[in-house]
Design brief:
single chain; two-stranded antiparallel ribbon; mainly alpha; 4 helices
Length: 120
């Protein structure tokens, strides 16, 4: 890593903390920036940079299959009846029930399914 990259990473970490502090203050961005003598344009510039860095840090789905196979036993004909639900997808793993709506983001669904892999 060269000096420019190290400097950028250092500033990015500083601004992540500044953004975190602003958001947790309960104040508006403009009020918080005025109180801390920060130019709101600088705040929004760094917010954009922090968001871009976060997106770049996400694993790429290119070349990977974004569909996660789920192996579940199907209920038998004489087994328990499935309840009606307003959810678009309902997954049941023993005592655990997962309901997903169409409005859920792909990232959220992927995270939930990864977590559900650990349910026993």
């Amino acid at each position: 890593m060269n000096t420019r990259e190290v400097t950028h990473q250092y500033r990015l970490k500083q601004w992540m903390e500044i953004i975190r502090e602003c958001r947790s203050s309960g104040q508006t961005v403009l009020a918080w920036c005025a109180e801390h003598d920060i130019n709101p344009k600088s705040y929004y510039y760094w917010l954009k940079r922090v968001r871009m860095a976060a997106c770049e840090a996400l694993p790429s789905l290119t070349g990977n299959n974004p569909i996660v196979p789920v192996n579940m036993p199907l209920p038998s004909a004489g087994g328990p009846k499935l309840q009606e639900s307003s959810s678009d997808i309902v997954l049941r793993f023993g005592a655990v029930t997962l309901e997903i709506h169409n409005s859920a983001s792909a990232g959220l669904i992927e995270s939930i399914l990864r977590a559900m892999q650990n349910v026993r």
